[in-house]
Amino acid sequence: xxxxxxxxxxxxxxxxxxxxxxxxxxxxxxxxxxxxxxxxxxxxxxxxxxxxxxxxxxxxxxxxxxxxxxxxxxxxxxxxxxxxxxxxxxxxxxxxxxxxxxxxxxxxxxxxxxxxxxxxxxxxxxxxxxxxxxxxxxxxxxxxxxxxxxxxxxxxxxxxxxxxxxxxxxxxxxxxxxxxxxxxxxxxxxxxxxxxxxxxxxxxxxxxxxxxxxxxxxxxxxxxxxxxxxxxxxxxxxxxxxxxxxxxxxxxxxxxxxxxxxxxxxxxxxxxxxxxxxxxxxxxxxxxxxxxxxxxxxxxxxxxxxxxxxxxxxxxxxxxxxxxxxxxxxxxxxxxxxxxxxxxxxxxxxxxxxxxxxxxxxxxxxxxxxxxxxxxxxxxxxxxxxxxxxxxxxxxxxxxxxxxxxxxxxxxxxxxxxxxxxxxxxxxxxxxxxxxxxxxxxxxxxxxxxxxxxxxxxxxxxxxxxxxxxxxxxxxxxxxxxxxxxxxxxxxxxxx
Length: 496
Ligand code: NAD
Hints:
The protein is of the alpha/beta class. It folds into two domains: 3-249 and 454-476, Aldehyde Dehydrogenase, Chain A, domain 1, CATH 3.40.605; 253-435, Aldehyde Dehydrogenase, Chain A, domain 2 (3-Layer(aba) Sandwich). The protein contains 16 helices and 23 strands. The protein has helices at 41-60, 63-79, 81-92, 96-114, 116-119, 155-166, 181-192, 207-215, 228-240, 263-275, 295-307, 327-343, 376-379, 395-404, 418-427, 463-469; strands at 3-5, 8-9, 12-13, 20-26, 31-38, 124-129, 132-140, 143-147, 170-174, 200-202, 219-225, 244-248, 253-257, 285-291, 346-349, 366-369, 386-392, 407-408, 410-414, 432-435, 451-452, 455-456, 471-479. The strands form six sheets. Strands 15-16-17-14-13-19-20 form a seven-stranded mixed β-sheet, sandwiched between helices. Strands 10-9-8-11-12-22 form a six-stranded mixed β-sheet, sandwiched between helices. The protein has a three-stranded mixed β-sheet with strand order 1-5-4, covered by helices on one side. Helix 2 (63-79) runs antiparallel to helix 4, helix 3 packs across helix 4 (96-114) and helix 10 (263-275) packs across helix 11. The longest helix has 20 residues, at 41-60. The chain starts with a strand and ends in a 17-residue tail after the last strand. The structure holds nicotinamide-adenine-dinucleotide (NAD). Nicotinamide-adenine-dinucleotide (NAD) is lined by residues 147-152, 156, 174, 176-177, 206-207, 210, 225-227, 230, 233, 248-251, 282, 381, 383, 409, 450, 454.
């Protein structure tokens, strides 16, 4: 009997009988670790109902009370971060050091939310007219849905949940069905930190659960992270039902290397950003754009580093790259390698052999050179350990290539020329830009978001834009005329 993973509704594990379940794998061995309950309409109604019942109390809770819970949660998470990292590795496959990094970035967002009262302060204009003041109040949206992808099962939920509850909302979190346990661990820790039942609920499942949240009239906001087609669908469906939606989508991130760059630094960056987490990161570098004459030397140095990369079970401390999340995903990524070869790209390192005869969802790091913009390995988000090198004759050509992409999540430039870097940050049409930094994920007190097909909606995730997303402002115009000037005796000594 494998473990059963169920919903967390109203402060406790759901005890009902599910109509459907899904398998959760250990990607390193390929074995089924657990079965996860999939929500239907009944479970959606129960979770949203619990969140709606908890809303009046939580909305009325003082900022001090909300802050106390968040601080307690922060302490618990810091104390138990290794446990959460291990849960992530067991179900996702990424190496433990990477999972620990994910939890650390998640903690940043919790810490930011601890200070949310500062950002919830409104404005006040005294005496806009005699006796009239105007001020603004930031209030919660109500019940909000958070729908997260498989690749950051701890961090992405914590991009949203702490800010949402700090602002007085109640939440239904629908994590990826591929690695659902991190979300449950987080919910249990919040309960231990004193979060009242119903303020955070975890609903497991697939499209049915997502559609249930999109259709439910009590859900007022949706924060979604996932692939572009689903992000677009969630945005269009949610907004057409009158909900506020931010939907972060997929990516195809380019790293431009100018000929004056430190090529060792650039090669190190390309390997860690291309193959870290087996390329299953929305900020992974997928295309290195080598500006002539950097190409030959850069490709040689990247290939040299790939040869030294240790691929293995994420739980082994020496492993640097783990398996892919499922067999189906591994097959999809492998088919892109076949397509790249068929399209005429130069296969410098072939990771396909690593998959042969091994249990688990393995694929080795793969490097293509001289990749053309019409090839599917260039146009599509592969989301695996496949790095492409495209060559251009000039900076202008490189910029044109980056800006022609329908995605605009992250990008980076490697150069020793400050003027070139400054020009790039000004001209590139991408939401997050690194200068000699391959994965420019903003710290928790900025906000995270791409442009173009990488984000639907107008609010980026977490940071100040997260607070903006999870609140509605109300502006009060108030008249309290000073009666002493109207000659009314209020009984004060001076008024006699
Ligand atoms: P996904 O789009 O398959 O799934 C995301 C969520 O949507 C999951 O909770 C899933 O259950 C749900 N879902 C799946 N199919 C659905 C459907 N047809 N209708 C409604 N809901 C559905 O994404 P994934 O494979 O879990 O994650 C990888 C993707 O997420 C990549 O494209 C990656 O770039 C993207 N991502 C983006 C960011 C970002 O910040 N922009 C961050 C992380 C991941």
